[in-house]
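W.,

You were right to be curious about this one. When I first looked at the sequence I had no strong expectations either way, so I just let the prediction run and decided to look at it fresh. Below is the sequence, 365 residues in total, followed by the output.
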Amino acid sequence: ILASTPAITVLRGEARFKDARTLTVATADGGTRGVSFDRCLIATGASPAVPPIPGLKDTPYWTSTEALASDTLPERLAVIGSSVVAVELAQAFARLGSQVTIQARSTLFFREDPTIGEAVTDAFRAEGIEVLDHTQASQVSYANGEFVLATGHGEVRADKLLVATGRAPNTRSLNLEAAGIEVNAQGAIVIDRAMRTSAPHIYAAGDCTDQPQFVYVAAAAGTRAAINMTGGDAALNLTAMPAVVFTDPQVATVGYSEAEAHHDGIETDSRLLTLDNVPRALANFDTRGFIKLVAEAGSGRLIGVQAVAPEAGELIQTAALAIRHRMTVQELADQLFPYLTMVEGLKLAAQTFSKDVKQLSCCAG
C-alpha cells in the first residue's frame, strides 16, 4: 500500500539520526542517503530481550519468533521468564503435549496483584506445568541435543529452551542523542500524551516508547501522532487501559492495583469475589479465579479491576468504561446486568461492598 501511494517514498534500509533535522539511511543496496524533515515519527517497535546468562548465547535457544515458527513439538520445554509471552507459550506447548518447566526470577505476574500470580500458578500446576518461582539460571549449556540450566534449586534439563524475558525497544542504533531525544533506563523513548518526544517536532509511537507494549496502544498512539503532526490536537489517555493475557484462565486488568494506588498516595477499599459466587462460572463447571474491585476509600469511586477467569477478557472493557466514567462501586452495583453472563460478576463484586452476595437469590438486583 505504501509503495503504491504516489505521495509516499519508501526507503528500505537502516536509518539513524545525523542531527535533529536529518536522517542518514544505509539503504539495502549498499548506498547511503540523507533525508531532511520538518517532522518525524519513530515507530521502530521492540525485539525479544535476552538476559546475559553465562553460556546462553552459545546455545540454539528459542525466542518467541522461533517457538511460533517451529514445526516440531519438543518432549521437554524449559521457559526462562514470566512475561506475557512466557506464560502464554508455556501453557500452549503444555497443552500440545510438551512437558513444560517455567522459571521466574520472582513470581508469575510479579508486577500485578499477588492474587493473580497465585491463581495462575495454581492453574498451571494443576495441569502439570512445573512452575519454579524465585529461580534464576546461573549457567546454560547445550550438548547432544539437550539444554542444561543450572539454578539454585538444581538442574533443569530440556530438549528446547524458550527465552521470554520481555521485549526491548529498538532504539540503540538510531543515534537518538544526535536529535536530542530522551530515553529511559530501558532505552524506551520518553513521550508525552501527544506522542511528542523531548524534541518537539519528533514523535514516537508503539513499543519503542515508554508506553505499554500492546498492539492496540501502538495503533492508537500512531493515529494520534499522525493527527498531531498534521496540525491537530489529540492525546492518548491510558488511565483506563484494559489488558488481557490469554492464558486459561485468562488474566484481565484495568486501572490501579491496590499497591499501585498506595504508591500514588490513594487510600483504597477493595473486595475480591471468587468465581464460585458467579452463576455463569457455576454453569460452566469452571470456578477457577476471581474478580477484584479496587475503590478509592471514602468516595467509593472505582479505580481498578483485576480478574482471573476463563472469560476475563470479555468483561474487562465494561470495567474500563466504568472507571473512565468515574462510577462508584454502588453505581456499578445498581446497574442491570444480564443473568448468567460472566460480566454479571462485576455487579456481584460491586455488591460485596455493601452486602453478602452469598445470601442473595440467583439474580437479586
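Here's what jumped out at me. The first helix runs from residue 64 to 69. And, maybe more interesting for your project: The mean pLDDT is 96.

Coffee later to discuss?

I.
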